[in-house]
Amino acid sequence: MRPTSLEEIARWCGGVCSAGTTVSGMCLDSRTAVSGDLFFAVKGQNVDGHSYIESAAKNGASAAVVTEDGSWSIPTVKVADAVRAAAEIAAAYRKTLGSKFCAVTGSVGKTTTKEMIHTVLSAKYNTGKSTKNHNNLLGLSLSLLAQDDSHEAVVLELGMNHFGELSELTAMALPDVAVITNIGTMHIEHLGSREGILKAKLEILEGLASDGIAILNGNEPLLRNAGIDHEICWFGFSDDCHVRGENYRETEIGCEFDAVVYGSRQKVCLPVEGRHNVMNALSALAVGYRYNVPVSEMAEALAEFRNTGMRQNIYKAKGCIIIEDCYNAGPESTAASLSVLASKSGKRIAVLGSMLELGDHSRSEHEKIGHIAAQSADILLTFGDDMAFGAAEAKKLGMEAYAYTDKDELAEMLRHTAKPGDTILFKGSRGMKMEQILEAFLK
Question: What is the chain's Cα-based Rg?
């Protein structure tokens, strides 16, 4: 964050400033506070940030945003709502930045796509990005306030699960490029239908600059028929896409394909597998093209791409190939992970956890995954009540499938089942914490 006076911060959020000072960063966790930080004393369900103001000060925080009266050793800005204040401060600060801004949303693949866009833009620009998967109101505030004048381009991830959330986030981000990776079924519990999800995702365009461009999945009929007024760049495998992929093939370390970027053909090698990752890469190439990054330089950058967190991390352990894809899951991303598993030789074991936030569609979507698993794997082990429907469906198709509600029991079964040379996929919603099963298996 550019050094900013506390008085200016107070003006941005309509707060009352107790004394003058300068801040140059933002933090929510007193343990991570550094010199110059503005600490936000947010009240959560279990923790009240006001109890940690002095700890933040001890670690270097220069000031705090508070919602209570009190006597603290650092200056404060008093507001009615600390989370709302953070958003207002971040939105005002964003308007002072002259960087190129790209915003990414979609049902699945947002974080991977954001990382790929950051990778290609970094070939030419000093590029900032959302930290981790900070994509909600408070997370976007953190990400915006982490940028400074050294950043020539910034790529932000915007998430949502209810109508109106993207409207608010895109009004803060004010992108000149907006990417929609896909329209899936994640959050259908709250949005009612895929058409509802489409409507919610299109909110990202409300903050798009009038001369900005929407980079959209050209293989999604709902987007094709959405009647969008902005300039559009379609990406995908269809012949009429402006940025399209051809000749997909798998390699020992990932995959490769031919990218046709507005008529220019370039071979691209990715150190990750699956056609879904090619789609992510195509959207990144489209953003880079918009920002005048040479296609050859983007291809070189993507060849060195490294994903974040627990997203399709493939490695060997206990003589098995492990596909660790535990960060989150929905029907589309689980099907994509199963397609990667299907391409492996030897015995293939799918360890799948329940997919959350599917509402009334939950049983049918889990049964569909069971059907796909029966075609993609040799053994299915499931965790959670909902994915048990998938196991039952797979059994009907003659697959060896077992449903568990205890992680240790599942891990024990896996230890008896898996042999050197097997490939094991771990996939499930974040709330299922599938990495715990993986950790128990590897002990």
Answer: 23
- Give the number of C-alpha atoms closer than 13 A to the C-alpha of residue 409, restricted to the C-beta side: 9
SS3 105: strand
Q: What single string gives the DSSP state of each residue in 380-430?
A: EEEESTTHHHHHHHHHHTT-EEEEES-HHHHHHHHHHH--TT-EEEEE--G
Length of the chain: 443
DSSP bridge partners of 216: 180, 234
Asked whether 400 and 350 are in contact (CB, 8 A), the reply is no
Query: What does pTM read for this prediction?
Result: 0.77
The first and second tokens of residue 99, run together, are: 């960087």
Whole-number Å distance between alpha carbons of 353 and 369: 11
Q: Could you list the pLDDT tens digit for every one of the 443 residues in the chain? A: 999 999 999 999 999 999 999 999 999 999 999 999 999 999 988 899 999 999 999 999 999 999 999 999 999 999 999 999 999 999 999 999 999 999 999 987 888 999 999 999 999 999 999 987 678 999 999 999 999 999 999 999 998 878 899 999 999 999 999 999 988 766 576 677 888 889 989 999 999 999 999 999 999 999 998 989 999 999 999 999 999 999 999 887 789 999 999 999 999 999 888 898 999 999 999 999 999 999 999 999 999 898 766 667 788 899 999 999 887 888 988 998 999 899 888 899 999 999 998 988 899 999 999 999 999 999 999 999 999 999 999 999 999 999 999 999 999 999 999 999 999 999 999 899 999 999 999 98
Residues of the chain by 3-state class (helix, strand, coil), percent to 5: 40, 25, 35
Instruction: Count CB-CB contacts under 10 A for residue 171.
Output: 14
> E strands, 106-162, where?
127-129, 153-157
Closest CA relative to residue 90, chosen from 177, 190, 9, 187: 9
- What are the structure tokens assigned to 81, written together? 């709502």
Alpha-carbon span 242 to 235, nearest angstrom: 6
- What is the three-class DSSP state of 18? coil
* Phi, psi dihedrals of residue 112, rounded to the nearest 5°: -60, -45
Structure tokens at 383: 């965790």
Distance between CA atoms of 413 and 396, rounded to whole angstroms?
Answer: 21
CB 258 within 8 A of CB 247: yes
